[in-house]
Amino acid sequence: MRAEELWKAYCEKENIDIDTPYKAWGFGDAPDQLADLVLTGIKTATASAYDLYFMEGEEDPLPQSGDYSIILNSKDEAVCVIQTTKTTVVPFDEVSKEHAYKEGEGDRSLAYWRDVHEDFFAEEFAETELEFNGQTSILCEEFKVVYRAIDVN
Predict the structure, then answer these.
(1) Domain that holds residue 34
(2) Do the bridges between strand 68-72 and strand 22-25 make them parallel or antiparallel, or are there none, so unpaired?
(3) Integer Cα distance of 28 and 32 in angstroms
(4) Of 29, 32, 76, 149, which has the most beta carbons under 10 Å away?
(5) Who's near 40: CB < 8 A, 6+ residues apart?
């Protein structure tokens, strides 16, 4: 199912204006695995590099509470609609163990989260003129699943 089709079905079900903005995206290098974690309720948070939202040519606004996103798998098929419930910006070194747990990856520990995300963010920053370090601002986003593609009749 395409993102537009899932969005239309969700809007009709919830009586939401079809023109309400949403983003469609997949999770990094493991979109299928992470989308499955979202669907099972294990993954209820994500993190992104705050400074990269302000790069020249970047058109993505910062996620805010109440925003909608459609999660895509590796085939760009819509898996579910999520709604952002909370955002905070903290230095990388201050991302909490609670946030790491909510991301649902690996053993859900802060050590695992830091190890995986340090590599991920270092790779993202390598493509820019910005430097990644422990004080780099990270946007921590919490969300809830509001509609799943498998629920579409």
Answers:
(1) 3-151
(2) parallel
(3) 10
(4) 149
(5) none
How many Å from the N-terminal Cα to the C-terminal Cα in the chain?
12
- How many domains, the chain? 1
Q: Residue 57: its pLDDT value, please?
A: 66
Alpha helices in the chain (DSSP H): 3-14, 31-39, 97-103, 110-126
pLDDT at 56: 63
d(CA 67, CA 56): 23
Q: Residue 84 forms beta bridges with which residues? A: 143
Q: Which residues pair with 5 in a beta bridge?
A: none
Q: Mind listing the pLDDT tens digit for each residue in 23-82?
A: 999 998 899 999 999 999 999 999 999 999 887 666 767 899 999 999 999 999 999 999
Radius of gyration of the chain (CA): 16
User: What is the model's pTM?
Assistant: 0.92
| Edge-to-edge strand list for the sheet holding 78-91 | 22-25, 68-72, 78-91, 137-148, 45-49
Q: Which two tokens stand for residue 74?
A: 């590796």
